[in-house]
Design brief:
Elements lengths: L1 E3 L5 H11 L4 E3 L17 H16 L3 E10 L6 E2 L12 H11 L7 E12 L2 E13 L15 E3 L11 H7 L1 H15 L15
Parallel strand pairs: 1-2
Antiparallel strand pairs: 3-4, 3-5, 5-6, 6-7
Helix pairs in contact: 4-5
Length: 205
């Protein structure tokens, strides 16, 4: 089953392919020679995921899926949230975002936070939303060299390692994105064999 992922983020492509496994082949926008700045102007994760999926569908005529992910920190009233990828400003790096977050939490005792991911699957003219979340805490310093984004400072509840210290199979099995993708995969497998057009790369609507 071929899936077009509406993203330019190569880290997400690798991670999602690993989560979905051999039953699915994930294509990026680069794979279909589409260079586009995908808008993210909603104030909710679900809104951004829908916006991105619709934008790519309008550009290509293809079914696709898109996600939006946010880190919500209790002591910061849910920030960075939908602004997680650009928290330190447009064009910022992962490290810039982490540095800003650690600075804002300097001296703060409440380190509770959660990752949330919402996936929008646009399939045969219908939109389907799948959400995953995981609770955890924010460290005071970075640990680990795996993953990306805020992974070096996020320890999921019940574990002693950050996402950046975990092997990929462990992180993907418990993460917010893993949970959302597994829910999407379950839905797709449940519709396999129907006329819903599950070869998403090649099927125009």
């Amino acid at each position: 089953m071929d899936l077009l992922f509406a993203t330019n983020n190569i880290h997400k492509i690798w991670e999602v392919q690993e989560i979905l496994g051999d039953a699915f082949r994930v294509f990026s926008l680069k794979d279909i020679n589409l260079c586009a700045d995908i808008p993210e102007t909603s104030d909710t994760l679900a809104g951004n995921a829908v916006q991105k999926a619709r934008f790519i569908h309008q550009k290509t005529g293809m079914d696709c899926f898109a996600d939006d992910t946010g880190l919500e920190v209790d002591a910061l009233d849910g920030r960075p949230g939908v602004y997680s990828a650009r928290y330190a400003g447009e064009g910022c790096s992962f490290d810039d975002n982490v540095a800003k977050l650690l600075k804002e939490l300097s001296g703060v005792e409440n380190r509770n936070a959660r990752f949330r991911c919402v996936v929008c699957l646009l399939l045969a003219g219908e939109e389907h939303l799948f959400e995953g979340r995981i609770e955890g805490t924010i460290l005071r310093e970075r640990k680990g060299a795996q993953g990306f984004g805020y992974d070096p400072i996020f320890v999921p509840a019940g574990y002693h390692q950050t996402f950046a210290e975990m092997p990929a199979y462990l992180k993907n099995g418990i993460s917010h994105r893993g949970k959302a993708m597994f829910r999407m995969m379950k839905y797709l497998k449940g519709n396999e064999g129907t006329d819903s057009g599950l070869s998403l790369v090649s099927k125009p609507v």
